[in-house]
Amino acid sequence: MRARHRERHRTERIGWLRATVLGANDGIISTASLLLGVAAADATHSNVLLAGIAGLVAGAMSMAAGEYVSVQSQADTEEADLALERKELISDPSGEHKELAGLYVDRGLDPPLAKQVAGQLMAHDAIGAHARDELGISEHFRARPIQAALASAGSFTVGAAMPLLTATIVPETSLIPVVSGTSLVFLTLLGGLAARAGGASIMTGAMRVTLWGALAMGLTAGIGALFGTMA
Question: Which residues have C-beta within 8 Å of that of residue 195, sequence separation ≥ 6?
Answer without folding.
Answer: 201, 202, 204, 205, 206
